[in-house]
């Protein structure tokens, strides 16, 4: 089945540690996204990538980093510089042929808790 | 800049009653409009979308939304809800010019009561 796989689903980390969230898609989509979801705030864009080896900052990129070395993979690193990293993180992808008219396909999410 | 407003954070409704979840947007350019649904601890799934053409769009599970350009609204409606419709619903927009960015509302939590 085609889709987006995020791992791990739940992650605990101590303050000061970096952590990497995995996102893999087999939909052959060019564009991939990382969103952060907090209660009552909706989804906020962290980073997005339109094509391999290229990515842009979203609205809340500080304290996060990404890479896009392969079309199917878009890992997100939450660094120790992120002041409030406890949140639900969602990865998504979309086709780019329609230039933004297509739907976003989401993974199941990763819930990060900083202890 | 674009923005999306979902005024109702929570909407309780009895089973088999009608429901309307409101969505208003602000944009200086033309946009595409979407409704997504999220069940607990899961990702979002597309419910329906408006790209062009008929302003009334429908989903396979009985939801519908109407694009109203003059009121910049895209309200979601269902004439009779089921317990299984309990979820969080997000309205979203993206520019038609293809900036690859989607703006989401803060979500409305629909709770269907027996």
Description:
The complex is a heterodimer of chains A (115) and B (114). With 115 residues, chain A is mostly beta strands. Chain A is built from no helices and eleven strands. Chain A has strands spanning 4-7, 10-13, 19-25, 31-38, 42-51, 54-57, 64-66, 76-78, 87-94, 105-106, 110-114. In chain A, strands 2, 4, 5, 6, 9, 10 and 11 form a seven-stranded mixed beta sheet that branches. In chain A, strands 1-3-8-7 form a four-stranded antiparallel beta sheet, with no helix packed on it. In chain A, a hairpin with a 2-residue loop joins β5 (42-51) and β6 (54-57). Chain A is globular and about 35 Å long. Chain A starts with a strand and ends with a strand. In chain A, 37% of the residues are buried. Chain B is mainly β and 114 residues long. In chain B, 0% of the residues lie in helices and 54% in strands. Chain B contains no helices and twelve strands. In chain B, the strands form three sheets. In chain B, strands 2, 5, 6, 10, 11 and 12 form a six-stranded mixed beta sheet that branches. In chain B, strands 3-9-8-7 form a four-stranded antiparallel beta sheet, with no helix packed on it. Chain B has a two-stranded antiparallel ribbon with strand order 1-4. Chain B is globular. Chain B starts with a strand and ends with a strand. The mean pLDDT of chain B is 91.
Poorly predicted spans of chain A: none
What's the helix-strand series of chain B?
A: EEEEEEEEEEEE
Alpha carbon gyration radius of chain B: 14 Å
Outline of chain A:
globular
- Beta-strand fraction estimate of chain B: over 45%
Structural class, judged by helices and strands of chain A?
mainly beta
Mean pLDDT of chain A: 91
Order of helices and strands of chain A: EEEEEEEEEEE
